[in-house]
Amino acid sequence: MDLGLSKRKFLITGGSSGLGLAAARSLVAEGADVAICGRSEERIEQALDSLRSDGQDVVGFRADVTDPGAFGQLREELSSRWDGVLDGLVNNAGEHTSGKFEETTDTQWYDDFDLKVMAILRGVREMLPLLRASSAPAVLNVLSVFAKYQYKNSMPSSMFRSAGLSATNALARDLADDGIRVNAALIGFIHSDQWVRAAGTDDAQAVQEYEDNRAQQLGIPLGRAGTPEEFGDVAAFLLSPRASYLTGTALNVDGGLSPVI
Ligand SMILES: NC(=O)c1ccc[n+]([C@@H]2O[C@H](COP(=O)([O-])OP(=O)(O)OC[C@H]3O[C@@H](n4cnc5c(N)ncnc54)[C@H](OP(=O)(O)O)[C@@H]3O)[C@@H](O)[C@H]2O)c1
């Protein structure tokens, strides 16, 4: 199936690693132009080296999505680069933050709110003029299955993922008149750099063992962590004109982990 993504233009926050990079790969493979952003210049350069493809525009920007001015700057850069048009925004930048409730601090709560809620709202608001200029605009919020149900010691992440889910639903309604579709991917447990860091080693076999154990502990019905490619392809579809009747929806990408559909 041709997804109709050739020459379309996308911004992926946190596209320098893990799931964001996988989404970038899938989009580039479909002929799209892709901009990624992240905080580490080194990670961005490594990602760009792996993404560059003849005839397509692949570009990286250093940006912290919790900085209130970041999306305004990105909009200016992309507007002049891509003639004022953006076909899709992937709000993916993030990290898992959770712990024992009574040990959480106000600073952790505010920081996580900035990262998981304000970054989505600012990202969409600042990119609106560019998205409105697209013939098939789409937003994809990368959240977690824990947006729909909580587990012990899961805050603040799980609470703000629920807010991200509400924002997806509300934005889908608010932006439908502009033809902008807004959907969410709810991630269960997918291999990425954050799990390599959690495993505490770069050794591929040790990381695999760590992920197999975690998949078993979580009770994932398919019995394993997902692969970044499995996410990337779902993202490309949701962002494509072939998903033209999907908006305000959240797709579990979780190997069956979530008891809530
Ligand atoms: N993988 C999973 O199993 C899983 C499960 C549930 C939810 N998720 C969500 O999926 C998204 C991607 O996670 P991942 O697993 O791919 O993690 P990852 O491999 O650690 O990648 C995270 C990406 O986000 C960027 N980033 C983090 N904070 C940022 C900030 N403030 N501003 C700009 N960029 C930032 C990172 O680059 P820099 O550090 O250089 O900025 C990196 O490119 C996250 O929102 C995560 O919470 C993942």
TrEMBL record:
Gene3D superfamilies in the record: NAD(P)-binding Rossmann-like Domain (3.40.50.720)
InterPro entries documented for this protein: NAD(P)-bd_dom_sf, SDR, SDR_fam
Top-level taxon of the source organism: Bacteria
Pfam families assigned: adh_short_C2
Family designation: Belongs to the short-chain dehydrogenases/reductases (SDR) family.
Protein known as: NAD(P)-dependent dehydrogenase (Short-subunit alcohol dehydrogenase family)
